[in-house]
Amino acid sequence: MCTTFCEGERVxxxxxxxxxxxxxxxxxxxxxxxxxxLIHYSGWSKSWDEWxxxxxxxxxxxxxxxxxxEVSTAAMVAEKKRAIIKEPMRREQPxxxxxxxxxDEKGKSGVKLSLGEELKKVLLKDRELVCAQKHLxxxxxxxxxxxxxxxxxxxxxxxxxxSARSGVCQDVVNGLKSYFNTLLTTELLYKQELAQNQxxxxxVYSDVYGVEHxxxxxxxxxxxxxxxxxxxxxxxxxxxxxxxxxxxxxxNSATYFASSNYQGPVPx
Length: 268
Hints:
This protein is an alpha+beta fold. The chain folds into 2 domains: about 1-90, Roll (SH3 type barrels); about 105-265, Orthogonal Bundle (Enzyme I, Chain A, domain 2), CATH 1.10.274.30. The chain is about 50% helix and about 10% strand. It contains 9 helices and 7 strands. The protein has a 5-stranded antiparallel sheet with strand order 4-3-2-1-5. The chain has a two-stranded antiparallel ribbon with strand order 6-7. Helix 3 packs antiparallel against helix 5.
């Protein structure tokens, strides 16, 4: 049977309002769902595999990678607009009287990570180097965000943590990686870095950028998650896992951070 995509082919695939890197696992046949392809989303567990129509799948080309960036940017802009519209409505709602000792605010706005003094100093130094001294982070990074995500999962496996055994650790890392790749151009770059980003060829941002931009994500992830539809229990659980990941980055800062990660100053 002649098909547009082959088994094992690297592709891009629409899911919800985003485009994700994926692999074609099965082509249309009588063994599966007739007329559909079985798609595996790269970096995600097999539980997310799905049979999908051909019109949701794109060839892995430079043109379609650019389309992926444009779709991600458009989705973020739309999400921010929705948040702006909802915000006055939340302020107008009467707040119930809370019992003594109960937190003043809970739920989605309660995702707050403690970076600690060490990572705060890293953020300040990073901003000084890029914005004031006109340095740029060398790309690809010596230690990429993908490598740090992998290190964290391996560490959790080594200590035989509950989250590693249950698969939650991998799911949290997959979510962080998705946020990193989706938000990098809209949330994690200083204006001084935009030209450098535009010079990059096709690829996944977490395989190119490193710890400096990952810490920037950790700094703003709480605000970004406040737009998500998580309930209180999910927020508390997610915050615990994100804080654990943050502590892992902090404890390995001597390995991940180095002045040699930067180049410059660059011409203005």
